[in-house]
Amino acid sequence: MRALGMKWLDRRSLLTKLLIAPVLATLFMAAMAGVFLSFVKEDEAATAEVVHAVSVSRAYAQAGTAVQQAHAALFRLVSFKMANMPDSMLNQISTEYSDKLKGVSEVFDKLAAFQGLSADAQGQIDTIRKEQKAYTEIAESIIRTIQNSGLGLDSSMVDAEQQNAFVVSLLETAIQEREAAISNTITALEQKRKEGSNRFLGLLGGAVAVAILVALAIARRTSRTLNRITEAMQEIADGNLETEVVGADRPDEVGAIAKALAVFKQQAIDKTALERAQAESKRQSRRALQDRMNQLATTFEKSVIGVVDMVIDSAGEICQMAEHTAERQETGSTSTLQVAGAADATLERAQTVSAAVEQLSKSVQEIGENMTRSVACTRQAVTDVDNAADQVRRLSEAATEIGQVVDLINQIAAQTNLLALNATIEAARAGDAGKGFAVVAGEVKNLAAQTGRATEDIAQRIARIRDETTGAVDGMTRIRKTIAEVNEIAAIVAAAVEEQEATTGEITRNVQGVATEMSRVTDAISTVTFGTIKSCSGAIEVLWAAEGLLTPAEQLGADVRDFITYIRQQDDEAA
């Protein structure tokens, strides 16, 4: 059951967790208010019962007083009659006696009119009225005796005295029973008040205990997860990417922090892997480029230098053959054909060198494209780091909003504390009747103070979370700066590759120029061949052409050697 409760708690948002303890306290306060209202209603009912019993007792006392006054008026009437007082005084006493009897009747009517009397009480009232009626009949017979002859008055007065004493005794018995009932009711009321106060205090203590336990459980659960996430953040910041990120499966704000940390960890892992792959690719590309450049340089040196040497040798041979053309015209045609074949071979080799240089240019271009893609990847890494920094900033803003909610709860606790203080003052004014409410107000005040302290602790923890997220943003900024430096280095390498591409293009143009010159040489040799057949003068022209070819061929050889030296120096510097 406890595990299910913790799982349910983990799925709730941080605001919901913060509101659980106040809501529980509010519910318990509502329950206590209900209990208090029930207690007040019971107390009011018991008080009403006591008031009713007191009213009935007073009515009995009034009835006793009225009966005694009527009996006294009867005795005064008899005494005045026996003393032969004037008729005016007798009439006055008679009127007074009639009024007293009427008052007795009204009091008994009032008793009978009370609501909620038990059947025994109603029967008791009926009995007293019956006995009072018997007394009234005796009194009327006494009055008739006085008005007639006065004989038998003594015995009638004795009967009246006895009947009045009996009625008074019945009334006194009823009054004693009423007073006993009132005493029992008051005792029961005091017992109920004591039980209600104990029950109220028990509920209040239970409410405070439950609220404190729930608040402690929530704080402990949340702080423990946050501490583990903070430790994971520190480990990842120190470069330990094997650290496990806990709490990412939680749907609350703590889970959001853990998910953001997991994303940051994965990005750091991807960045490390990308840097390793880029370094390895760069090393392999540089090594392949060096090998390819060395291979091409060697091939180019062999091909071009060989061709140049052949051109120089062929030019020398052409010169020798041209000098002896006049003497050996027949053999000159054959030699001229050999020169033409050598020129064709030279042209083919020059074209081979041109194709090799073009392949070298394409390889350099591919390297430039790879460096361009590397620059694009580093730019994308900068964008991803910026996005992660934005997520952490939004997390910091969410923590700030939670802090505002905590401030609101703190204000509510302060207002509750003020209301409890006012309630304590009002209870003090009420005296003994407000002692129970003063205790409740004091407990509410303590609960409000505890809530204020809890919200202050939560606010401090949220401030620490906000500081940690700020540190994470700073770390991401440093990562972004490092990636930007890598991007700049890649851009420099790309620029160097572009320079190599331009140099290779220049070599290609020079080799193509050599091929063009060799094509021209071939055409010239063909012309010489046909000229040799036609005229000896053509041999002289061939001699001049051969001498003119010798100098460019030597210059081409020197240029090719300088180019090969430059390529190898670049390879040594790159290594």
Automatic annotation (TrEMBL):
<feature type="domain" description="HAMP">
    <location>
        <begin position="220"/>
        <end position="273"/>
    </location>
</feature>
<keyword id="KW-1133">Transmembrane helix</keyword>
<keyword id="KW-0472">Membrane</keyword>
<dbReference type="InterPro" id="IPR004089">
    <property type="entry name" value="MCPsignal_dom"/>
</dbReference>
<feature type="transmembrane region" description="Helical">
    <location>
        <begin position="200"/>
        <end position="219"/>
    </location>
</feature>
<protein>
    <recommendedName>
        <fullName>Methyl-accepting chemotaxis protein</fullName>
    </recommendedName>
</protein>
<dbReference type="InterPro" id="IPR003660">
    <property type="entry name" value="HAMP_dom"/>
</dbReference>
<keyword id="KW-0812">Transmembrane</keyword>
<dbReference type="GO" id="GO:0016020">
    <property type="term" value="C:membrane"/>
</dbReference>
<dbReference type="Pfam" id="PF00015">
    <property type="entry name" value="MCPsignal"/>
</dbReference>
<dbReference type="GO" id="GO:0006935">
    <property type="term" value="P:chemotaxis"/>
</dbReference>
<dbReference type="Pfam" id="PF00672">
    <property type="entry name" value="HAMP"/>
</dbReference>
<feature type="domain" description="Methyl-accepting transducer">
    <location>
        <begin position="314"/>
        <end position="529"/>
    </location>
</feature>
<comment type="similarity">
    <text>Belongs to the methyl-accepting chemotaxis (MCP) protein family.</text>
</comment>
<dbReference type="GO" id="GO:0007165">
    <property type="term" value="P:signal transduction"/>
</dbReference>
<dbReference type="GO" id="GO:0004888">
    <property type="term" value="F:transmembrane signaling receptor activity"/>
</dbReference>
<dbReference type="InterPro" id="IPR004090">
    <property type="entry name" value="Chemotax_Me-accpt_rcpt"/>
</dbReference>
<keyword id="KW-0807">Transducer</keyword>
